[in-house]
């Protein structure tokens, strides 16, 4: 049986690599996939990362090939060392994402290829002589970041290579818009729709004072990338003024957001919380959301 080999990504690999990426995306968020063009574009630049992407000095994409097939892939970044770069990123390297198909009865064991690829990734980080080595699972798709619990095979490779989880754990929740609260007839609150920081902002006013707002992002991926994420939005911000705490305003804000999302043709809404923040996930699960997955953010290479 021929041994796997690791080599730089070639354009001819684009379809097989995209299939690998989409297999991992599908395990995290339902009904989402990305195009070949999306994957190729993200290998060159990450326009959605408006803060960190300009700090990248070098990029590398590696694949592991076995039996003539691409069975694993990884994308790496090296950040600049100058003062313009954020301190935690300065002179650091990262495995931005790492994917491989887990073993199955109908195909050869791919763990050997994955381990070989990981060794090549660590060798590339060492060759860059970076101050620190990080890892993530930030695939070019909505909602997929950190290391989702749905990828135990990737987690095992990271752990065996010396990466340790040092950051937070994020809870990702999903609701069908049809299951969200409905606005009540004759409600006296005024709703103002404006451009928000993280999407369209819906602000609730009572007698001229703002009680709270919710922001929903209905453009999780740029249309020219042809991602199959139609009907998906997320909550960018949800804020309730202290004076309105305990009044149920969170549910009313969600109801107004749901009205807007129905007009937009959106049928699913994503929200985020953390394991340490019990309040926000509690409000959301009581309003039609359910836990989709948990993802561990912040992995650092700490061998030994």
Give a brief description.
The protein is an alpha+beta fold.
Overall description:
It comes from Streptomyces griseomycini. With 304 residues, the chain is α+β, with helices and mostly antiparallel strands. The chain has 2 domains: 5-161, 3-Layer(aba) Sandwich (Aminopeptidase); 174-295, Aminopeptidase, CATH 3.40.630. The protein has helices at residues 14-26, 36-44, 111-128, 152-160, 249-264, 279-285; strands at 5-8, 56-66, 69-79, 92-100, 132-135, 147-148, 163-165, 169-176, 190-196, 199-206, 209-217, 232-240, 268-274, 290-296, 299-301. An 8-stranded mixed sheet has the order 6-14-8-13-12-11-10-9. Strands 1-2-3-4-5-15-7 form a 7-stranded mixed sheet. A hairpin with a 2-residue loop joins β2 (56-66) and β3. The radius of gyration is 21 Å and the shape is elongated.
Percentage of residues in strands: 25-35%
Low-confidence stretches are none
CATH architecture group name of the largest domain:
3-Layer(aba) Sandwich
CATH topology description of the largest domain: Aminopeptidase
Quick one: CATH class of the largest domain? Answer: Alpha Beta
**Arrangement of strands in the largest sheet:** 6-14-8-13-12-11-10-9
Domain module count: 2
What's the main sheet like? Answer: 8 strands, mixed
The fourth-level CATH homologous superfamily of the largest domain is Gcn5-related N-acetyltransferase (GNAT)
Helix % is 10-25%
Domain N-acetyltransferase: 161-304
InterPro entries: Acyl_CoA_acyltransferase, GNAT_dom
GO molecular function: acyltransferase activity, transferring groups other than amino-acyl groups
Organism: Streptomyces griseomycini
């Amino acid at each position: 049986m021929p041994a796997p080999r690791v080599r730089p990504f070639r354009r001819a690999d684009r379809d097989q690599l995209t299939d690998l990426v989409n297999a991992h995306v599908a395990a995290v968020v339902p009904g989402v996939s990305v195009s070949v063009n999306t994957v190729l574009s993200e290998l060159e630049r990450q326009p959605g990362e408006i803060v960190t992407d300009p700090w990248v000095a070098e990029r590398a994409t590696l694949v592991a090939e076995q039996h003539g097939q691409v069975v694993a892939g990884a994308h790496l970044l090296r950040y600049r060392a100058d003062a313009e770069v954020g301190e935690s990123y300065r002179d650091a390297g990262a495995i931005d994402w790492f994917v491989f198909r887990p073993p199955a009865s109908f195909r050869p064991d791919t763990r050997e290829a994955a381990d070989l690829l990981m060794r090549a990734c660590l060798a590339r980080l060492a060759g860059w002589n970076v101050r620190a080595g990080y890892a993530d699972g930030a695939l070019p798709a909505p909602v997929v970041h950190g290391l989702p619990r749905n990828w135990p095979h990737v987690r095992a490779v990271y752990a065996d290579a010396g990466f340790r989880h040092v950051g937070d754990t994020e809870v990702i929740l999903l609701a069908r818009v049809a299951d969200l609260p409905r606005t009540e007839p004759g409600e006296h609150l005024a709703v103002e729709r404006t451009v928000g920081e993280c999407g369209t902002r819906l602000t609730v006013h009572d007698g001229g004072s703002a009680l709270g707002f919710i922001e929903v992002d209905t453009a999780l991926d740029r249309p020219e990338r042809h991602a199959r994420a139609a009907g998906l939005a997320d909550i960018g911000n949800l804020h309730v003024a202290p004076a309105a705490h305990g009044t149920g305003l969170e549910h009313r804000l969600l109801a107004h957001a749901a009205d807007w999302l129905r007009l937009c043709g959106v049928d699913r809404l994503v929200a985020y919380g953390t394991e340490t923040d019990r309040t926000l996930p509690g409000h959301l699960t009581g309003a039609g959301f359910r836990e989709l997955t948990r993802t561990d953010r912040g992995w650092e290479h700490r061998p030994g």
